[in-house]
Amino acid sequence: MIDAHFHIWRLGRNDCAWPTPDLGAIHRDHELAEIATLARAAGVASAILVQSQASERDTRWLLEVAKGSDFIVGVVGWADLTATNIGERLDALAHAGPLVGMRPMTEGCADDWFDAPAIDAGLTALVERGLTFDALIRPRHLASLDRLAARHPTLPVMIDHAAKPSIGIDREAWRDALAPLAMRPNIMCKLSGLMTELAPDGSADDLPPYIADLLALFGPERLVWGSDWPVLNLRGDYAEWLACARAAVPATDQPAVFDDNARRFYGLEAA
Prior knowledge:
It comes from Sphingomonas oligophenolica. It holds the Pfam family Amidohydro_2. Helix content is about 35%, strand content about 15%. The chain is built from 9 helices and 8 strands. The chain has an 8-stranded parallel beta sheet with strand order 1-2-3-4-5-6-7-8. Strand 4 (about 100), helix 4 (about 120-130) and strand 5 form a beta-alpha-beta unit.
């Protein structure tokens, strides 16, 4: 089993500026040893490490950590996709460790961020190097991301955290906005980050309808499970989220959702 989305950070080092002190539950250093122990106890054998800072310095650190680990099978990093020398930057990062993709920090950006022509050269550079694109977004970005996927039909795009729906609010509108993207063969979706979108009085019991929607839209062949640890700890814990997801995904679909799809999307060797 693969955890396709987790983070580590050291506050104040490697350009780490987030989480801020108001996020008390996660405002501390989070190291690889902690998550590796936690995940393996839950039956997770390997994982994809994802950037949490808009910094190449942070990405280089993540790649260095990954090189020395038998738990991390790939790193989704950050680089300025609008840089004139983006190809050289990607090559340097790929040389530093097991880079599998890039993730710009876009959830706080304008609704039409993905329409910007300035990012197209960077996206083409990803395709040329066999790298993927993780989209950290909100539902309001979905239309723009759909247009990006149309412009770059060979770019593998992963929607992180199912576009962060507000659980219990406008579920139908979220599902309808996702539907056109689910029709595109180059787009997949992460079954992750949903617990932190729960209403203040919500619980894991509110999540199965959303998971059912994702299975109906993307099918079990284009849905990928991830923990989003340690951000997950703001509203739940590793074992609770894994149990919730496994209970909502039919047993026959679990090998794909919890392992095979991540390997295929990120270009990893079969287990």
